[in-house]
UniProtKB/TrEMBL annotation:
InterPro entries: MFS, MFS_dom, MFS_trans_sf. Residues 1-37 are annotated as: Disordered. GO terms for biological process: export across plasma membrane. It is found in: Membrane. The chain crosses the membrane at residues 48-68, 80-102, 114-132, 173-196, 203-223, 288-310, 322-342, 380-399, 411-431, 468-488. Keywords: Glycoprotein, Membrane, Transmembrane, Transmembrane helix, Transport. PROSITE patterns: MFS. It is a multi-pass membrane protein. Residues 49-495 form the Major facilitator superfamily (MFS) profile domain. SUPFAM superfamilies: MFS general substrate transporter. GO terms for cellular component: plasma membrane. This is Major facilitator superfamily (MFS) profile domain-containing protein. GO terms for molecular function: citrate transmembrane transporter activity.
Length: 500
């Protein structure tokens, strides 16, 4: 190995997050040199690391969706109105957007591993408290703590994918990271309905505490540090307080790379404005905005399922929770399928420019002219964005016409497939643009989507009451179509950029 990642890492003050370079200059302390592997981990090791990150990212959607079937019994037992119980949903969503602003910055400086462990412990403790409380005030406060712990790690799975995967394989890894959260979104309402019906609503929180405990043990023992600002490509030993069994075993076997002093990490209080400032960054603002817009039709689609399916088909809570299965299965299929297509399209553009694709090393994509990063990612998203919009509108008019339930459920599968495929393409592009601050840009993406998602879900029911479900989803689909030219603008703007 001809160069040591630490040599370049030490040029930056260890305690500060280095400024992200413009894409015309793709070298920085987080990238490997041309003759170094991008990551010391094997393909099997990368998949194992990302599997752990994916399961940790599952906690937030699981805690959010498993709670819905328990709303009515909670309101009854605590003697409060349904609107007051719904406040615990609003505060949970609010913390979902705020917590990653802080934890993602810490993960980009102090490392991923300590943030994972602290957040999982906080989540576990909050669920134990929720499992024993019988007070509305305690419910509201502990739900905020629960949200902070779970959503604090939600943004990190994509950051881990950026740490260990080269751009040539990043599409597949980003999609793989989304698998467990999608399953949690799908299965959460079903599990919550069964627990609330047969074991009482307290059992929902004890179940979440058990999930956190089962996850905490292997994460503490085996999940290694991957942050490139801390360990480079993995060859730099992490600080002793952040090591796990996996790190120690590699060092004993002499596979940890050159013997380099671990970096001295100075952790300051995260600047809450840093993720917000990315919304005004010339290269990031449009992909971030379009990601939130693309998500709006399927947010509204999911928001109207409970009330609409109850009114039209007379379904109870358990039957309604089962209606989310087609969306979840479609979303999982879309996430896994689009990853391979993104990688294939990336390789096609590389071949067109005469660039040999190496999935283990950083490729100098600037030697043959600027690489069309945005086109390589977003060309895949164009058909799925169009189809997602059309299927959402079709779903609304099927319900408006009260067709047989099989029709809306099939379309719900297609909405899930296309919507998640589109969002994963944009997420991969954002990671390409921000390899050294992957956690921060993912937190920015999460913040904007949470804000717009909250507005959309709040407006859905009043719109349905005013104009009907068909026109409601037509309005949100029209909003998506109105901003669709932004997709081509992003591809044109980024067509002359380079990727690291």
């Amino acid at each position: 190995m001809s160069a040591d990642p630490a040599a370049t890492a030490q040029k930056t003050e260890p305690g500060s997050l280095p400024d992200q370079p413009k894409l015309e200059s793709p070298t920085n302390e987080a990238t490997a040199t041309d003759d170094e592997p991008w990551s010391i981990w094997s393909s099997r090791g990368k998949r194992a690391i990302l599997l752990g990150a994916s399961f940790a990212a599952m906690l937030s959607p699981l805690a959010s969706n498993i709670y819905f079937p328990a709303l009515e019994p909670i309101a009854h037992d605590l003697g409060v109105s349904a609107s007051l119980v719904n406040m615990s949903i609003s505060t949970f969503i609010l913390l979902q957007g705020i917590a990653p602003i802080f934890t993602a910055q810490l993960a980009d400086t102090a490392g991923r591993r300590p943030v994972y462990l602290v957040c999982i412990v906080v989540f576990l403790a909050a669920n134990v408290g929720l499992g024993v409380q019988n007070s509305y005030t305690a419910l509201l406060v502990l739900r905020c703590v629960q949200s902070a712990g779970s959503s604090g790690v939600q943004a990190l799975s994509n950051a881990v994918a950026a740490d260990i995967a080269t751009p040539a394989e990043r599409g597949s890894y980003v999609s793989f990271a989304a698998a467990a959260p999608i399953l949690a979104t799908t299965l959460g309402p079903i599990v919550g309905g069964l627990l609330a019906q047969f074991a009482g609503w307290h059992s929902v929180f004890w179940f979440l505490a058990a999930v956190a405990g089962v996850l905490l043990l292997p994460m503490a023992a085996f999940f290694p540090e991957t942050c490139r600002n801390v360990v480079g490509n993995g060859s730099i030993p992490p600080p002793k307080w952040s090591r796990c069994y996996t790190n120690s075993r590699r060092e004993l076997r002499g596979r940890g790379g050159p013997q380099t002093e671990p970096p001295r990490i100075k952790v300051g209080f995260p600047n809450p404005l840093r993720p917000v400032m990315l919304l005004f960054d010339r290269e990031c603002c449009w992909p971030l905005l379009y990601s939130a817009i693309v998500a709006s039709p399927f947010y509204s689609t999911l928001a109207l399922i409970p009330s609409t399916f109850t009114r039209i088909y007379g379904y109870d809570e358990l039957q309604i929770s089962l209606c989310y299965l087609p969306f979840g299965v479609g979303a999982l299929a879309g996430a896994l399928a689009v990853g391979r297509v993104m990688d294939s399209n990336f390789q096609r553009h590389a071949a067109r420019l005469g660039i040999a694709v190496d999935k283990t090393r950083r490729m100098d994509l600037g030697r043959h002219g600027s690489f069309p990063t945005a086109r390589a990612r977003l060309e895949v998203a164009v058909p799925t964005v169009v189809l997602s919009t059309g299927f959402s509108v079709a779903f609304g008019w099927m319900l408006q016409r009260r067709v047989h339930v099989a029709g809306p459920l099939v379309v719900l599968f297609l909405v899930g497939f296309c919507a998640v495929a589109s969002l994963n393409c944009i997420a991969a592009l954002l990671l390409d643009l921000n390899p050294t601050r992957a956690g921060t840009v993912t937190a920015s993406n999460n913040l904007l989507r949470c804000l717009l998602g909250t507005a959309v879900t709040s407006a859905t029911v009043p719109l349905v009451q005013a104009v009907g479900v068909g026109w409601t989803l037509t309005v949100f689909g029209g909003l998506n179509a109105l901003f669709m030219p932004l997709l081509w603008h992003i591809m044109r703007q980024g067509s002359g950029r380079r990727v690291t």
